Amino acid sequence: MIRSAVQSERGFSLVELLVVIVVIGILAGAAMQSMDVAIKDARQIKTERELEMLAKAIVGDPSVTNGTARSDFGYVGDIGAFPSNLQALYQNPGGYSTWDGPYVPPEFSQDSTGFKTDEWGTLYSYSGGLTISSTGSGATISKKIADATGDYLLNTINGTIKDAANDPPGASYADSVNVVITIPNGAGSTTSKTYSPDAAGTFTLDSIPVGTHLLRLIYTPEVDTLTRYLTVLPRHKNQPSYRFASAHFGGGGGGSCSGNVTLRPSGAGSLSNLTTDGCGSNWQCVDETSSDDDATRVKRGSNSYLTDVYALENPADTSCPVTSVTVYCRARKHHTLGAVKPTVYVSGTEYNGSEQSVTTSYADYHQEWTTNPATSLAWTWQEVINLEAGLALKGQNAGKPGYCTQVWVVVAYSD
Q1: Is 321:413 a contact under the CB 8 Å cutoff?
Q2: Residue 401, domain CATH
Q3: Residue of 405, 271, 266, 287 lying closest to 346 (CA atoms)
Q4: Which of 56, 71, 165, 396 could serve as 66's disulfide partner, Cβ 3.0–4.6 Å?
Q5: Collapsing DSSP states into helix, strand and coil, what is residue 330?
């Protein structure tokens, strides 16, 4: 009895302890190996997401739209060229006036270097080509930005221009029409390219980068200008068509009682609530014939509306019936939030158009009134002469305002 008790209490043998230690070592090694694999997988997934983010910063995100039109074209859409390095996505590469970055998301833009390295701390490989690569894992993880640079820089657009009667210019008027598109020039500024249609009104714009670009169609004998914004997508296939408001080409050839007149701000109006930027008086910030974008502008640094209205030039001819008054505002937002309401001010009362969300690049927004909102009757020329017009504007906050750089009014008239 005593010997059995002693034997049951003697503990583990040396061999048994060695077996236990070996088993624990094997389990620990397996666990460490599994953890290493999990960490590597997580780093690879996050690196792939960062590569996707950088690609969208360069060429834009197709899912970001303004209404039904794509509105995000990244660095390429603003500059008209691919960046020479990733730093250009964070910092203006040389005083470029069209640069509107940072193009990387806010969580990356707070760090001037972190967005350029993968999850292993190795710099991404990019020098202006079509591929961004990560090598920190010991293997190459690549993201293809585009199939070809020409898809984003060298698009061709075929369009047509006719008059109000749907007549083409014909051989007699084709050389009297200029089609002018303003695009980024690839070096931080813009350039304008001018084309003329053929007799059928067809024109072709060549070597156009992606983005939203100012397009002007001008009937030169009467300086009748149709202003539009053309959104160009990669491998552009749309065939836009445009019509002047007057019958310039056929039939009566555009009689004296059919057309429109453009009126621009000429003085202070009854409401001057927006903040000036780069100019003296509010109306002087928005009165230019050709937009100067951020050089002079009014702004609103709050997510609530304030209104500016301006006195307007007087029309030269008041002999034809007015058919509509349209107020145009060229505006943009700084960041996420921003909206505009084109506005008329009649008989001491402010009448706002519909709310229109604005993009981060300047674009034109407008509201048409076919009757005087104060009377619900057709406009008279005296009402147009007394008219003040402008906009209600809001942004996001003091650091991320909404901006307006240009305001004008188009008065249409016809028998």
Answers
A1: yes
A2: 2.60.120
A3: 271
A4: 71
A5: strand
CATH number at residue 198: 2.60.40.10
Residue 5 CB coordination number (10 Å): 8
Tokens of 101: 């970055």
Residue 35 phi, psi (nearest 5)? -65, -40
pLDDT in tens, 66-114: 877 788 999 999 999 999 999 999 999 989 999 999 999 877 656 667 8
Query: Residue 97 domain-assigned?
Result: yes
Q: Which helix (H) or strand (E) holds 79?
A: helix 74-79
Find the largest Cα–Cα distance for the chain: 131
Number of Cα atoms under 13 Å in the Cβ half of residue 383: 22
Q: Which among 74, 102, 78, 98 is positioned nearest to 88, based on CA atoms?
A: 102
Give me 6's structure tokens. Answer: 């002693």
- Reported as a single tens digit per residue, the pLDDT across 338-373 is 999 999 999 999 999 999 999 999 999 999 999 999
